[in-house]
Structure formats: C-alpha cells, structure tokens
Specification:
The structure holds 3 protein chains of 3 kinds. By secondary structure, chain A is mainly α. Chain A is 70% helix and 5% strand. Classes of the chains: A mainly alpha, B alpha/beta, C mainly alpha.
Chain lengths: 296, 499, 333
C-alpha cells in the first residue's frame, strides 16, 4: 500500500513539473497584467528547439539554452505585439500559439524526418523508491518544485515583486508613482520565456524525442493551475500537483473497475479542465485575478 | 524670496482643444499656493505637466532654481516633487505598507521591519495611525488621503501637489488635512493646492493662481483679494442669476420614494430609509459631500441596482421591482455621472448614440425594427439643442470633446417628452454658458410637465438653479427647515451632519 | 504617424519571416505562389475544394463575429463545433432519412448552445473570463467526443476512433453536382446566415442592444439593456451557430465523425471574423480567402512546402489585422 502511494506521489511530481513551470510562466506574465494564453505555444517552441539543437550539438546544456532562448524570443514577440503594438492580448496569444504550431510543424517536416539519433538529456538522480520502481529525478523537476516557493518570496519580499503586483493591479496608478509598467512587463515576459523554455525541455528530455504538438494542452493545464491557485505561486503548484495526480491515476487505474465500471481515460484527462471551469464558476471559493489583467 | 517652482509659458494642446495656453505659475517655498479655476480650466493638466505625467508642448519649468524637463513621473519624484491625484493613487489590492513604499522601496529586497518602523515614525509625527498589514481596500476616504500624505513624506517630497484633496472628505477630515499641511509647511515644505473651493483658499493659502479656459487670469496674494473677486476671475465676469421658476407647480406627484434602503458595494447600508416626492414642474437638487449615498440613490432610481426594501412610484405606478427598460418606457431620462462609461459608446456614431436609452421608443423603433431615417433626424435635433459642435452625425462620438459629448447626452435626456429627468452633475465639463443652457433645458422640460432631480457636489450650482434642495449625508436624506430652504449655511451644516 | 511607421515595420517583419521560411523550404517563391493559386482556384475541382474548406469557416466565422459584437471572444467555437458534429452524427446514424437530418441539425444546434452556455453564464454572473472557460471546454469537448467515438459511437470494424458512415439518405444535398466539382447547400445556407446576421444586427432593436452591451456594458445598462442576459444569449447563439457548422460538416462533407474532428477551425474562424473588418458581409470573402489558404496550402505541401507554412501565414496575417483593427488605445499615452 505504502509503496503504491510512493509511486503515485513520485509519478505525480514528475507529471506536475511541466504544469508547474507553465503555471509559473503564466504567473509572471499575468501578474504583470498580460493575459497569457500562449504558454502552450511557447512550451512547444522550447521543446522543438531543444530537440533540434540537441541533435545537432549533442549537448544538453547548449540545447537547454537554445530552448530557453527560443521561448524567450517568442515571449518577447508577445511583449512587442501586446505592449508596443497594443494588439488585443487574446488575439495575440492565439496568434502565437498558431505560429508556434506552424513553425514547429514546419521544422519537424523539414529537419526531423527519420532517425536523428539519441537526444542528449540532463543527468538524473536515480532513486529506488520501491523494489521495482526507480524514480529518475531530474534537475528540471527539482526546479519546478522549488521555483514557486522562490516566486512567492519574490512577490512578497522584493522590490521587483511589489512593483509586479502593483502594475498588474493598476498600471496607471503605478505609473504615477514612478513605476514603469512597460519595463515590468518586459521583464515578466522574459521570465515567462525562460520558464516555458525549461518546461518544453522537460517534455523532450522525458520522452527522448520531439513530436508535433507534443505538449498536447499542458500549457492550458498550467494556465488552469494558475487560475485554480488564485494567481498565487504555491497554490498554483498544489493545483498542478493535483492535476498530475489525476494523470497518474489515469495510468494506474487503466482498465481497472471502480464501483464496477471502467472509468475511461478521457474522464481523468478532462478533470483539470472541468475543475477549472467549476472554479471559475465560483464554486470553489473566489479566485481573484489581478485587477488590471488584460488592460492595455 | 525663494521660488520652489517657476513655470513660464507652459502650453499643451489635446487634439483641437488648447488645454493650456502660455500659463505661468510661481510658487514660493514654504507656503501653500492655491491653483483655482472651473472644471476644465486646465488645473490638473498644469499639475500633470509639473509632475512629469505628461509633457508640455512649450514653456519652461524651474524647480528650486534649476531648469528641469521631466519625461516621466519618476524624474519629478527624484527632484522632490510629489503628487496626490484627485482619484488617489492607492492600489486597493496592496497592503497599506506596500502602498506606502511602492516606487521607493529602498533596496532590492524589502526590509519589512525597517519599513514598518519608519512608516510608524512618519505616521506618529503627523498624528496618524495605520494598521500597516491590512489591505488598502479597507481604508475610508479620509484615511486614504492621510496615507497619500505619508507617501509624499516617505519619498521626502519637498514640493507637494494636492489635486482637489477635500473633494471626497468630510469637512472634519478636510480641516484635519489642512492642519497636517500647515505643520508640513512650517517645516519647510511647499504645497500646491488645486481646488475649486474658495473658502479653502481664503483660510489656508498664501498665494493663489486663477486659471480660466487654459489661460492664467492672475496670480495674487490671498491677503490682497476677496472671495467675490476670485469668483469673478474664475467665471470671467459677474455671475448672472438665472431665471427662476415662472410657473405654478402641477398637482400630480411624478415620483414618490418611500423608505428606500440600498446596499453599497461592501454590503453596508448606503441608503438608510430615504423618502421624498417630486411634483410636476419641480426641479429638485440633491446636495451633499461626495460619497454620501447620492450615487446609490441615483442607481436605484435608474434601476441598475436593486432596492433592498422600500417602494418607488412613477406617476402612481409602483416601479420598485422593474427594470431600467421599463422605467425608460414610462418617461425616465438619465444624464449619468460618468459620461464616458455610462452614457455613450465612443466608437459609435452620433446617430447611433442618439438612440441609446431611447432605442425601444418610437420613433427610434417601429416595433422590433430600427427606423434609421427617424434616428438620423432625431440625432440632428439632439445635436442642435445645445449646439453640440461635431463634424457630422456619422462621426464617432469619441471625436467630440468632453464638453460637446456632455451637451449631446444632456440634450438626449430631454427628448421624447420626458416625465422624470435624473441628472448627476449635468454641467460636468461645461462652461458657464452651456451650464445655463442645460439648466434652462431642464427648466423647460419641467414646465412641460416633467420633474427633474439633480445631484451635484457644487452647492452654489444647485442654489442657483433649483426650486428646492434636499441634502444627503451618510445615506440619509434631509430637508432644511422651511425658512432656511435656500440658506447656504443651513444646507452646509446638513451636508456634514451637524445640526 | 508614429503608429503608421511601426505598422509598416511590422508588415515588413512579417513578410521577411514568410520569405525566410519559404527560402528554408527551398521552394522558389514565384512557382510556389503560382502553385498555390492553381491549387486553390486554378480549376473547378480546386475551386470546389476551396468552397468546401470555406463552408465551416464561414459559418463559424459568423458565430465568432456575433459573439465579438457582444464583446465576447468565443474561442470555444471549436468545442461547440465538435460537440455539434458529434451530436449530428449520432442522431443521423440513429434516425436515417430527411427527418433524421433535420433532427441531427437541431441536435447539433442544441449541443453547441449548451456547450457555450457555461461560458456565458460564468462571464455574466461571475465575471470569469470567457476565453479561459471556453479553452477549458474545448479540451473537454475533444476528450468527451473522443471517448464517445472510441466507445459507444465507434464503428464496428474501425481500427481508429471513428463513427459508422452515414447513409446517403442522411446527406445534406448539393446544389450543384457535376463530374468535376460540387457545391453543397451548406455553403448557401452559410451565406444566408451571414446575410441574416448582418440584417439582424443593423436593423433590429435587439441587434442594437446586443452591440451596445458589447461596446459599453455599463452604458447599455443605463440605457435599459440587460447586459448580463445579452452576454448569456449571445454566447449561446454563437455556440448554436458553431454546433450548426459541426452538423453541416458531418452531413455535407465528412459523413462520419472521428476523434480530433476540428483541425483548429476555432482559430481560423477568429481570423475570418477579424479579417471581415467589422462588416458581416465581408465574412464571405474572408472565409473564401481562408478556404484558399487551406486548400492551396495542402496542394503545395505535396510539392515540399510543409503544411506548417499555412499556419505561419495565418498567424502573421491575424497579427497584422489585429494591429490595425484591434488596438487598445488610451487617452493618456
């Protein structure tokens, strides 16, 4: 029994990591007032570039840096169109997702056909949790679990965190007190790029390859975790973990009968989305977005 | 004599409006200097230029003898200038302490304990007290104003701009504020006070600058001028008395409100058992300090907020539970408080805006169908009524200046034989001439059998134009004694709840 | 002026990205463009394909357009399309013939409206952003229909999640059918919907009130419009149109339902609605253009230009359109 729980826990932490990283990317962006439905596209870009550069360089570090660079570049394009061109944040987010899907699809067709050999991955610590289960703990997973705590501290105890919160709630008042909203948002979207780049890396280094559309909605689950966590880092991490438990249960319970029926995998997969809708409907307490979210 | 601020020949243009036209402002160090003028005279624009929130087209600015050119507020703040804007810079989602230190945190990592200590020291010096860890959303207007003052002190501001600081304060809080300001000035600070309340100027200020229509009229020692003289300079010539009511009131009651109770945004009782009635032909004003419950009453009468209890009758029909649409059908017309967000769609044409609120009534609609020809004709009538300046009825509302939009909105409320006109600051952003026209329009509608209820924070405007004034204070409506019905002082006492 | 320069820079940037991508493919630009035109409108056969691609985009575009006019981003049109298609397939398989087809369309409309309803209700009464709710509901729609079509609705002999094929008696009829090309009545109905929508918005009091609520909800409330109710209804109506498009897709074109039914129509529909520049009738050329992109894109992918290219074109196009039309302009800037 205990070993089952341990395995479930370990699996959940593994699966929660990309969600948590995406959620933190969303956090830094949305806290500054930029609505971010483009997490998915940024992650996908990071994953694709990691694979592309990884095959070419055979270095996990160079591939990671390239992935972060690509996601960050895309995130800065996001900054450019929302803050300089003042394009609606929803339209721009959608457009970035489509550009990412198109661009990565393009790269796959053009450069990743056939067997490109094995991808370099970051070293992992092998932890023997039970007799026949080894937990491969990668530095990315550690980062994903620690980062929310760091961001929570950052938000409460630093100048940058305070200004971030202020700009996200009321950019005009913040400007009057001498804080530059655009500067804050630039930094925020930069951070979004870094976090989603690592999240993308995590995908590829877990599976050892890149496939078209491989993030399959994780960016949106990250967004859901952020919302469910009330736009706060640690609760968002907990929400990501909860979603990951659903994922893990789905694998563990595959084909198992619960109360005499086989629960289809789609049921587990849709839980994060359904729970988020229920949360937005106000049935799970009030989840308050930054007051200035989505405003120019 | 040393000058804290010298602004010379400052000009600023917004589109086709010359907001500032070569304005000079000279402020002596260690004094309270008043900047007065009507709404839209350019006071706030001038202050925004000084504070770096907006750059002027022309002119020079000197601060403490040094020529400066601010491109953003941060630079003005660094030069020792602080500003409390009319609508406060407090961000309700942050704590009091966070609001205090925002923008001047004093390090990459915030030392909360040290910050709280210094905050406490500053507060004690001014005789204020705050619970620093509470959300600023819980602050009363008076407390928010105090926090704003502390924000200036936190930044070591030597020159403090206060834009209409008493607009949302009770008179007691207002007096306390001037006590604090006096203390600061004694310690060498300079205060620029933007206001349209002359008693504040006469009682507390050393010098005064008068603006009118973007131009500086004069700059005087307060000791060498009088209230009436300032009033004349502000409005440009002697105030003309408008025509008073020249007809008998009708016998029918248009609107009867009984025991209205309405909840405010935070669940408090914003209206506590309010009752009154209006007769045909009557033009009634509601006086009071901002935030006394006028807004809630207004919204309840329009029907956009629900009554917790009480009843409302329009021409003898109970409309307590009906929608705004139903009341509009019965002859309610509204001039809302916030033109931009409540009265127009700026992207829409004048023609489209003409129907807003009247869209279900003939001739705007024939059944469920829009009658465009009739709408165009009506839009022309509305625009002509108060001579709205516009580039064509098919131009967007947003292309009009604020004053012209207000003319259009006011005229629209007098269309299609209104029965009951509800107006919140109907003269907002209008010059004196247009103000007279709008009130004359209300008067004419009343003469034709309507009744009008006007909310204004400007008691003099109400005294000038209304048949009767009722006073709102802390959610309670009261009426001055019959022999003091138009007595400025008696009404003023009711406004602050002093009996 | 400054914005004009910036816009020019943006457009140039987009063109550079496009040409760069095209160069990477190794395809000669002029030849690619020629192939693209040939493959989308160069023959009756190609034109028929473009018109087919255009049909769902036109109807979905109308749905998104209606919601936009009420101030709502119905990103969820994708999910509403999917549940509508699934419902239509299920009903048409159960009830064959003309009557079944009508029933299938009604079921799809109801399913689409129901799928949009939570988003409308949450937006109106809880303030939850419709974009977030509809994104979530889109994912649920894919999973739910994926389950249905790999379980109860799955065809007996299929090796992938797909339904049985409809009987020809259930098909939506073509208005034109020759050896070389065909035009479905779905397209005609789509055009009629667009015309009706344009008339309704411009000529009816209800249309006026919907647009007032979308443009300025507070002012609309003061003008006697129940903005909350408008939001719920507009969202449901938009969803109904999405469901209808799903039904037509099944009944007129694919004749069966399968997993991951929508190839990203939601975004394309948003693009069509944005490109129509605020005028409903412009939905028709906008949808035609998107249809061309889709059909022509498939055609040139055969000659080595990846299909991803089409998405890049779409993404950039929408960015530029939005930079021109959907800016947030503020008084003090």
């Amino acid at each position: 029994m205990i070993s089952t729980i341990l395995v479930l826990l370990a699996e959940s932490i593994m699966r929660a990591s990309p969600y948590a990283l995406a959620a933190m990317g969303g956090w830094s962006s949305e806290r500054s007032g930029v609505m971010n439905i483009a997490l998915e596209g940024k992650m996908l870009t990071g994953a694709c570039v990691y694979a592309l550069v990884g095959f070419a360089s055979h270095s996990a570090v160079i591939a990671l840096l390239a992935a972060i660079g690509a996601s960050t570049a895309l995130s800065l394009v996001h900054y450019l169109i929302t803050q300089v061109y003042k394009v609606d944040q929803i339209i721009s987010g959608m457009a970035i997702n489509v550009l990412a899907a198109g661009g990565t699809g393009f790269i796959v067709v053009k450069y990743m056909q056939g067997d490109g050999g094995t991808l370099p991955v970051a070293p992992t610590w092998a932890i023997h949790l039970t007799k026949d289960y080894i937990f491969h703990l990668s530095p990315y997973v550690v980062l994903a679990m620690v980062l929310p705590f760091g961001l929570a501290w950052y938000a409460r105890r630093t100048r940058g965190g305070l200004r971030l919160t202020a700009v996200g709630n009321d950019p005009d008042k913040a400007r009057l007190i001498g804080v530059q909203p655009r500067q804050i948002r630039f930094m925020s979207l930069l951070a979004t790029g870094v976090f989603t780049g690592v999240a993308g890396t995590l995908f590829v280094s877990n599976s050892g390859r890149f496939t078209e559309g491989m993030t399959s909605g994780s960016g949106f689950i990250g967004l859901a975790a952020l919302i469910l966590g009330g736009w706060r880092p640690i609760p968002a991490l907990l929400a990501a973990l909860a979603f990951a438990v659903f994922d893990a249960l789905q694998v563990i319970c595959q084909g198992m009968k619960i109360f005499g029926v086989i629960v289809p995998s789609q049921f587990w997969q849709s839980l994060p989305y359904v729970v988020t809708v229920i949360a937005l409907a106000g049935f799970l307490g009030r989840s308050r977005p930054p007051a200035g979210l989505g405003k120019a | 004599m040393s000058w804290a601020v010298r602004m010379d020949g400052v000009s600023k243009r917004f589109g086709d409006v010359q907001a500032l036209d070569a304005v000079d402002l000279h402020v002596e160090t260690g004094t309270i200097h008043a900047v007065v003028g009507e709404n839209g005279a350019g006071k706030t624009t001038l202050m925004r230029a000084l504070y770096g929130a907006m750059s002027a087209d022309a002119g020079t600015i000197e601060v403490e003898g040094k020529s400066v050119r601010f491109h953003r507020s941060a630079e003005a703040i660094a030069a020792g200038i602080g500003m409390v804007s009319q609508h406060y810079g407090i961000i309700p989602e942050l704590t009091c302490l966070q609001n205090l230190i925002l923008g001047a945190e004093g390090g990459v990592v915030i030392d909360l304990r040290a910050a709280e200590e210094r905050a406490e020291t500053l507060a004690r010096k001014m005789g204020f007290s705050f619970d620093w860890r509470r959300d600023a959303a819980t602050l009363s207007p008076g407390a928010a104003q105090k926090l704003e003052i502390l924000k200036l002190l936190w930044r070591n501001a030597r020159i403090m701009i206060l834009d209409e600081p008493t607009a949302m304060l009770s008179p007691a809080d207002g007096e306390a504020l001037f006590g604090s300001l006096g203390q600061l000035v004694n310690e060498g600070a300079t205060v620029i006070l933007v206001t349209h309340r002359l008693p504040e100027v006469m009682d507390y200020c050393r010098r005064v600058t008068v603006l009118r229509a973007g131009k500086r009229v004069d700059e005087k020692e307060v000791g060498e001028t009088t209230s009436p003289e300032l009033a004349r300079m502000i409005v440009g010539g002697d105030v003309v008395l408008p025509a008073q009511r020249s007809y008998e009131l009708g016998s029918r009651v248009v609107l009867a409100a009984r025991d209205l109770v309405v909840s405010g945004a935070r669940g408090e009782q914003a209206l506590k058992s309010v009752g009154f009635s209006l007769r045909e032909g009557e033009l009634v004003g509601i006086a009071g300090v901002d935030g006394s419950g006028q807004r809630e009453l207004f919204h309840a009468l329009v029907g956009v907020t629900r009554l917790s209890s009480g009843s409302l009758e329009l021409h003898g029909v109970d409309v307590s539970g009906t929608t705004p649409a139903d009341r509009l059908q019965r002859g309610l017309r509204v001039i809302p408080e916030d033109r931009h967000s409540e009265a127009v769609v700026e992207d829409w044409t004048l023609e489209q805006n003409a129907a807003l609120g009247l869209q279900r009534l003939a001739p705007f609609a024939r059944g469920a169908i829009v009658d465009s020809a009739a709408r165009r004709a009506e839009a022309g009538t509305i625009a002509a009524k108060f001579s709205t300046k516009h580039g064509g009825l098919s131009h967007p509302m947003g292309s009009l200046s604020g004053g012209n939009q207000q003319r259009f909105v006011a005229a629209r409320a007098m269309e299609l034989s209104p029965k009951f006109i509800l107006a919140f600051q109907p003269a907002r952003g209008l010059d004196l001439n247009a103000t007279e026209h709008v009130y004359a329009g209300l008067r004419e509608a009343c003469k034709n059998g309507a009744a009008a209820l006007v909310v204004s924070f400007d008691l003099d405007e109400l005294l000038e134009h209304c048949d009767r004034i009722v006073v709102m204070n802390r959610g309670v409506l009261s009426e001055p004694a019959p022999d003091k019905a138009m007595d400025r002082e008696a009404i003023g006492r009711l406004m602050v709840g002093a009996v | 002026m400054k914005h004009g320069l910036r816009l020019a820079a943006l457009i140039i940037g987009c063109v550079v990205v496009l040409l760069g991508a095209l160069l990477l493919t190794g395809a000669p630009p002029a030849q690619t463009l020629k192939d693209f035109i040939l493959g989308s409108v160069g023959s009756l056969d190609a034109l028929g394909g473009t018109l087919q691609e255009m049909t769902p985009l036109l109807i979905l575009g109308a749905g998104v357009f209606l919601a936009l006019r009420a101030g709502l981003f119905n990103i969820g049109i994708d999910g509403q399309f999917t549940v509508g298609a699934c419902a239509a397939a299920a009903v048409a398989l159960k009830v064959p013939g003309f009557f079944g087809t009508v029933l299938a369309v009604l079921a799809a409309i109801a399913a689409g409206a129901l799928w949009a309803l939570p988003a409308g209700l949450i937006k109106a009464y809880k303030g939850g952003h419709e974009v977030i709710t509809t994104i979530m509901l889109n994912n649920v729609a894919v999973l739910l229909t994926g389950y249905l079509v790999s379980g109860p609705l799955m065809a007996a002999k299929a090796d992938a999640p797909m339904s049985e094929e409809l009987k020809p008696g259930s098909y939506l009829p073509d208005i034109l059918h020759t050896e070389v090309w065909r035009v479905s009545s779905a397209l005609l109905i789509g055009v009629l919907i667009v015309v009706a929508l344009g008339w309704w918005l411009k000529r009816t009091v209800a249309g006026y009130e919907l647009q007032a609520a979308g443009a300025n909800p507070t002012a609309a409330e003061f003008a006697g419009v129940n903005a909350k109710r408008v939001i719920v209804r507009a969202m449901a109506a938009s969803g109904a149109i999405g469901g209808l498009a799903g039904a037509f897709q099944v009944l007129a074109f694919t004749h069966q339902f399968y997993e991951h039914y929508s190839p990203g129509y939601g975004f394309d529909a948003l693009g069509v609605a944005l490109l129509s520049a605020g005028s409903p009738l412009m939905l028709v050329p906008a949808a035609f253009f998107f249809g061309m992109l889709s059909k022509g894109g498939t055609f040139i992918s055969i000659s080595g230009v990846p299909k991803g290219m089409t998405y890049i074109v779409l993404g950039l196009l929408i960015l530029v359109t939005a930079a021109i039309r959907y800016r947030k302009v503020k008084a003090h800037d």
